[in-house]
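Incident log, structure service

09:12 report received: a user says their structure output differs between two submissions of the same chain.
09:20 pulled the input from the user's history:
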Amino acid sequence: MDSPRLDLRHLQMIRAIGRTGRVVDAADELGLTPSALSHRIKEAERRLDVPLFERMHKRLRMTAAAEYLANFSEKFLGELYLIEDEVRRMNAGIDHVVRIAVENYSTYHWFPNFLANFRSDHTTIDIQIMAGNRRDMVGSLLDRHIDLAITTGAVSHSATQRLPLFQDPLVFICAPEHPLAAAKSVSATDIEGQRFITFTKTPEPDQEFARLFRPERRYPVWTASVELPEAIIELVAADQGTSILAQWAVEPHVAAGRVMAIPLAPEPILVDWNCEFRSDEPEANPVRQVAAALHDWFSQ
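09:34 re-ran on a clean worker, output below:
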C-alpha cells in the first residue's frame, strides 16, 4: 500500500493557515519561524504536485485544493486528538467516553453536580463536553463528533432518538439599571422600540420571534445578531441592549446581579429541552446510560 504523501505536520500547517490566513500568525501558532513554515508549504506542494496557496500582499489565499484539505484537517486532527485522549483515559480505568454538547448555549453550571452523581455509579464511563458547532446538533451526532446533544424542538431526526429532560421558559433580560428592570412581566408592546440583541434573525417556531413579536406585530429595534449567548449576556449586562434567552442559561448571571430576568407576557413561552442520541446506539450502552441519567437528573 502506498504511504500518504503528507504528514501530520503538513495537515497541522494547512489547518493553521486556514485559521489565520497569514504565514507569520500560522508559524506562531505552530511554534515555527515564518521561513520554516514557508519551506513546509513548498514541501507539501512538491509532494502533491498541486499549488495550495497564492500570495496576496501579506496574506495567503487558499486554492480549492487547500480549502478541501483544511476542512479535512480540521475534522481529522480533531478526531485524532479525541482518540488519543480517550486512550489515555482508558489507562486510568475509563472504558468509555461519552461526548455531549448543548444546542446554542455553553450552559454547564449544572454539570459538576450531575457528573459527581453519575460517577458514583458509573466509574468506568467518563463524560466530555464538546465545543464546536452548537447549531447543527443532528449533523454533529450523525458525523459522530458528539454522542449526546441537549436540544430543543418537538421533532427528532429519523436517525436519532430523544428523551425529554425539562421545560424551560424564555425570559426577557436587561441590565439592572434598565427602565424595564423592575417590571413583573414584559410583553411585545413593552419591548417594542427597545434595543435588542438577537441570537439569530432567522425565525424559529418555538422562539420569541414566532411566538411573541410576530403575533402582536410589534418588534424591537434589532441592534445586533450575536451567535454567542455568553456575548449577548455581557452586552446586556453592560446596558448595550436587551435580549430574550433561556431562563436556565441566564440563572447564574441573574443570581450574581449582573442582569435581570423578567417573565414574558401575556403567556410564558415554554421550550422543551431533550436529550438526543443516535438511534443505532445499542441498548444499555454507555451513551444510553448517560442519556437515562440526564433524564433522571433533570426530572428531579
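09:41 both user submissions now match this output. Likely a transient worker issue. Closing.
09:42 reviewer note: Residues 5 and 48 are 7 Å apart (CA to CA). The two ends are 56 Å apart (CA to CA).
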